[in-house]
Amino acid sequence: MREEGTTAGAAAVIRVSRFSHYFGGVRTLDGLDLEVFRNEILGVIGPAGSGKSTFLCALNRLNDLVRGSRVEGRVEIEGEDIYGPGTDVIALRRKLGMVFATPVPLPRSIFENVAFGPRMAGVRDRAALVGIVRDSLEKAGLYEEVQDRLGTSGLKISGGQQQRLCLARILALKPDFILLDEPTSGLDPISTMKIEDSLRRLKKEYTIILVTNNVKQAARVADRTAFFLEGRLVEAGPTAKIFTAPEDRRTDDYLRGRFG
Amino acid sequence: MSLDPRLTQRLAKAVLWAMTVLTVAVLVFIIVFVLRKGLPVIDLGFLTKSPVDMGKGGGIFSTIVGTAALTALAVLIATPLGVGTAIFLTEYTWENTVTRVIRFGAECLAGIPSIIFGLFGFILFVTTLGFGWSILSGGLTLAFMILPTIIRTSEEAIKSVPPVFRTVSFSLGGTKWQTVTRVVLPSALPGIVTGIILSIGRSIGETAAVIFTAGSALRLPTSLFSSSRTMSVHFYILAREGISMSRAYGTAAVLIIAILLVNIATYRLMNRFIRKYS
User: Fold this and answer.
1) What pLDDT, on the 0 to 100 scale, is given for residue B278?
2) CA dihedral B29, B34, B36, B41 (to 10 degrees)
3) Which domain holds residue A209?
4) Residue numbers in A near B94 (CB within 8 A)
5) Residue B131: what pLDDT?
6) B156 and B248 fall within a common domain
7) Can you give the CATH number for the domain in which A142 is found?
8) Residue A60 lies in a domain
9) Confidence tier at B55 by pLDDT (50, 70, 90)
């Protein structure tokens, strides 16, 4: 029932080539070659420590914050080499919004959490902020639940709501990409379902990369799936193909739960 | 030999209890002692009139003004310097030899007796820079004295802000400065303020460093270059020279109440702030 994911011939919006990443002397990503296409959900699966999160944080250069982080190779996003000199890292991070494994609302109100990014980007007009906040919360599927208590602390809503708040917070930046790092790992099945529903709706407007520990989640929502192992990309392809006829034996083993 | 765990538990509880009670008792004893001796002297005139006849008569108004001016100056100078240093050490550099040297230096500075600061302030500010015995010299000296405390407490407070808040801020396109001012400092504020309150307490109560640098003039100070006497110096002189013990206790009582009021006011302000950021 899933449509064929790969849009043959479509131009890749993210193009990763021979990309390696190091933390000090430790190689965490090893010669990745991977493409991501517009308006798809790319699922990234693999056991713990396979480099999924490092890969995600390489795309918005969040790895830069860690001491001793170093890269080789090339990552092009919409044609721009993001590790080239003169890259505007701030603009890059606004373009690739990121949701983390544990919901991290900042200690302030729901409204201020969503307005946080736009405020830092220089939006001061109150009416504009109100519009952005409402819009973003609606897109994240949270508005109805919180509309009459936007002044409540972001810490005082449920875990599932907090995660959707974090989603709304990046939508407020009007990004082109959404990076999700195991966004539902700490959530109950219903909250998970709500997030997955949001993602299916959101891919019409955004390109989404979903790192997940839950292979079934990748099967449910990803158009294409990439399997990582020990910092290497084992294979990537349409989700249906990866799950039914993987080319690499290790992919099959992982999906059948033989390791990881 | 081993004791019954239930017995050790009960023993530990009793010992800890006794320690707490002892600590609080000593504290209460000091405060009650000073207040009982001092409160009878305090009336409106004591607070609003300047000392007469070396402090035998009149009030302590000029010393209250002197204390407030010196402390305010010290805190105004030391807070930006100290918090700035703490931000630099925690947010803007990786841990390396330089940061370790700075931190070690600050710790050594914290252990130096205040009278040494007084001597240093006397040589540098009073004589070399020619500020004379003045509020400026005293305030600068006190600022140096409280700087290590402010650096240390601010650093601890900043370090205790969950790192993930910073990651979130950066991931939302925040610059380092935006992250520091909008995420780190608001969360670290209670800790920073605690350090500042400690420092205010130390400044208000400081005698040795002040007497060398601000002098002990009883006149109402009129500018930063006026020599001035603080309440603790006034207390010291009144008691030591046997001018008036009752007035000495009166001064001490005002001192204690002032510190109490500063504490209450700051915590009130902080609570209002915390409610906004939680």
Assistant:
1) 66
2) -170
3) 12-255
4) 67
5) 93
6) yes
7) 3.40.50.300
8) yes
9) confident
The domain containing residue B216 runs over which residues? 44-276
- How far, in Å, CA of A19 to CA of A232, rounded? 10
| A6 part of a folded domain | no
| The total number of structural domains that make up chain A | 1
Residues B27 and B11 in one domain: yes
Tokens of A167: 């989603």
- pLDDT at position A2 is 39
Is A107's CB within 8 Å of B170's CB?
Answer: no
Chain B residues near residue A169 by CB distance under 8 angstroms: 172
B119 plus B20 within the same structural domain: no
- From the list A62, A107, A116, the residue facing B278 with the nearest CB is A107
Q: How many residues can be counted in chain A?
A: 260
3-state secondary structure of A33: strand
Q: Are residues B174 and B213 in the same domain?
A: yes
Annotate A138-169 with b (16+ C-beta within 10 A) or e (fewer): ebbbbbeebeeebeebbbebeebbbbbbbbbb
Check whether residue B104 and residue B125 sit in a common domain.
yes
Query: Looking at the partner chain, which of A90, A108, A121 has a beta carbon nearest the beta carbon of B277?
Result: A108
pLDDT value for B1? 60
Is the same domain home to B161 and B212?
yes
- Indicate whether B125 pLDDT > 70: yes
B225 burial via Cβ count (<10 Å: 0-12, 13-18, 19+): middle
- The count of other CB atoms within 10 Å of the CB of residue B97 is 7
Task: Spell out which residues of chain B touch residue A102, defining contact as CB-CB under 8 Å.
Answer: 164
Among the residue ranges A75-79, B168-172, B220-224, the one predicted with the least confidence is B220-224
Q: Could you read off the pLDDT of B251-267 as tens digits, one per residue?
A: 999 999 998 898 888 88
Indicate whether B143 and B270 sit together in one domain. Answer: yes
Within a domain: A3 = no
Q: Which two tokens stand for residue B67?
A: 């204390």
Mean pLDDT for back-to-back runs of 10 residues, chain A (260 residues): 46 92 92 94 93 94 91 92 92 94 92 95 93 94 92 91 94 95 89 91 94 92 94 93 92 83
